[in-house]
Design goal:
Blueprint: H1 4-32, H2 36-62, H3 68-76, H4 82-106, H5 122-145, H6 150-164, H7 173-179, H8 193-214
Amino acid sequence: MPALGQRAFCEWLGTAFLLAAVVGSGIMARELTGDDALALLCNTLPTGAILAVLILVFGPLSGAHFNPAVSLTFALRGELPWSTATIYIAAQVLGGLVGVWAAHLMFELPLWQFSITQRTGPGQWLAEAVATFGLLLTIFGCVSRRPESVPYAVGLYITAAYWFTASTSFANPAVTIARSLSDTFTGIAPAGVAAFIVSQFAGMVAAIILSRWLWRE
């Protein structure tokens, strides 16, 4: 097993690439089209694709969580030491910020900015709970029976969830925090971050409970 420092670096770098893909493809989509539906599609496909690639690359090294909800879930299930989970989460949050800033620099936008896109309300909060619940069930189900399918299943799930959830499926506290610092197509106003994260953790808890019932050893 790689050293903890190597694993934390993988979580940092993987999350940075994920956010660069999410924000960068959103900027490119907005530049190339004025149609919101087409822009969302152009944002969706790179996000699902990069997730599959990143999990294939970093999965054997760190587990390729790239998501505090995933790391916290494995800690709660006793499958990841709490000290490691804490380091992973810190690396993920920092990596997300670096990814957003890299996207800004690539498109020659101001490095430091705050989103003004309002994403709030019961429908959005329910969507984030559903999105996170479904993501974690996807991971648990595949790990339990077909672990080699995790990269493709997660990429496909997020691709689908972009479209069937009202929030476009953030499903990730690190992603939510990072996207609040980008006033671009994929941004979320900072005032909406806390409620999104609470909803994500609610979906996480529901997924843990159900997965223990469905996939008991």
